[in-house]
Amino acid sequence: MSNIYIQEPPTNAKVLLETTVGDLDLELWGKEAPRACRNFIQLCMEGYYDGTPFHRVVRGFIVQGGDPTGTGEGGESIYGHPFKDEFHSRLRFSRRGLLAMANAGKDDNGSQFFFTLAATPELQNKHTIFGKVAGNTLYNMLKFEEGDIEDDRPKYPHKIIRTEVLLDPFDVIPRRKAEPTEAEKKEAKPKSKSKATKNFKLLSFGDEAEEDEDETIEATKKFSGKSKSSHDLTDDPKLSSAPAVPETARNSKRTSEPEETVNMENLRKKLKKSEAEEEKPDNYRLFQGDDEKKKAQVAEAKAEFEELKNQMLKRKQAAVKADAVAAKKEEPEDDAIKEYKQQKAEFEEKKKQLPKRGASSREAQTMALLEKFKNKLHRAKEEHVDAPQETTAGGDDAEDVNDDSWLAHELHFTANDPTLAKDASTKADDWYDIYDPRNEMNKRRRQADAKGKRRKDKGDL
């Protein structure tokens, strides 16, 4: 089982399903199946799966859900149309607890999904695997098999209570549903066609109220669209319905009033403009001198501030110099310190003369110094004369060498150790022992050896 987990790629998304059988921790492969994971995560964020049942359960095979209708024929993807399958070589139906898309054919994925309850190799390359059930929540998933099931339909189907996205690699934002139009709102709430009726028999004065109601209905029909007054509604002879002012005079007055108001407003605007134009030059003359005075005062204050600043800097620099001189006088300097300071000053002076880093002349100067050193080295070798040098017991220190003779010196080592063995990698002719029995020298040696052997034998006898 461990080698199966090693072959599966790592997950990068996580979703929690709260169901009636318990929580299910789902880990998704967002890189291997991006379309399916994005679809599932966005539907979870929008609450699409909340309250949906697991409408199909096949023991030892799969548990299917994700259909809001609960029939197995509903559901829609976030793309508005079925999306394509996504197969991966490292994702296989080899165990239980896998999460895959349910479809009715090739490239027909919507919102429905299923969990595997065992190894289902017959589904390979037919359904998109995009997640798995993680941890101990796998045992909650196995509870789907419990209960009454008839024709792959549970009698009391389990449901998804709610979903929660714990890790989202896509930064998905839930879609905003369009607000219903006024026509849709009217269709959603149809008005009742039956008219309300008043039952006057329930009142103690029902007859009188019914007569008043009839009179008001007739009056509304007669004067619909017109304003009503007490002249129209009552039959009082003291009241006259004739207007006190003729309509023609009233209309002429109404038309003349706006013109008069417009003329008055224009006159007021003109008067305000003339007053502003008259006051503007006087004000300008009055405040012009004040502005110039303020500017002069500001400039004078700035100059005074700069002068004080320069004086403070000069005092500070003078104090630093005085402290440095006093420190030099107080410290007794010996010859070594004087020489060190002198060399330091020389090097600092040379450093100031060097061009800055990054300048084109810096590289040219470096090459010139290198060429100068090469010439000096070559000249020292030519001027060097091979002569015996006296060596002291302690050797020469760096301070004892004041000339450039060291530039022409060569280091040689003498091999005083005896050779203990020949080097097999460099075999010469003397390495091999050549013995030729036909050689005259070898014949004489054999004869001499034979004579010596005979004499020895005679002496022993």
The gist of it:
The protein has 461 residues and is α+β, with helices and mostly antiparallel strands. The protein has a domain of 166 residues: Cyclophilin-like (Cyclophilin).
Question: How would you sum up this structure, described in words?
Answer:
The chain is an alpha+beta fold and 461 residues long. The protein has ten helices and ten strands. The chain has helices at 2-7, 34-45, 138-141, 182-188, 206-222, 230-233, 247-330, 335-353, 360-383, 440-460; strands spanning 13-19, 22-28, 56-58, 62-65, 98-103, 109-116, 129-133, 149-150, 153-154, 160-167. The protein has an eight-stranded antiparallel sheet with strand order 3-4-6-5-7-2-1-10. Strands 8-9 form a two-stranded antiparallel ribbon. The protein is flat.
* Class from helix and strand fractions: alpha+beta
Span from first to last CA? 97 Å
Record field, number of beta strands: 10
Proportion in β-strands: 5-15%
Most strands sheet: 8 strands, antiparallel
Keywords:
single chain; 461 residues; alpha+beta; Cyclophilin; 8-stranded antiparallel sheet; two-stranded antiparallel sheet
Please specify the SSE layout and strand pairing.
Layout: H1 2-7, E1 13-19, E2 22-28, H2 34-45, E3 56-58, E4 62-65, E5 98-103, E6 109-116, E7 129-133, H3 138-141, E8 149-150, E9 153-154, E10 160-167, H4 182-188, H5 206-222, H6 230-233, H7 247-330, H8 335-353, H9 360-383, H10 440-460
Antiparallel strand pairs: 1-2, 1-10, 2-7, 3-4, 4-6, 5-6, 5-7, 8-9
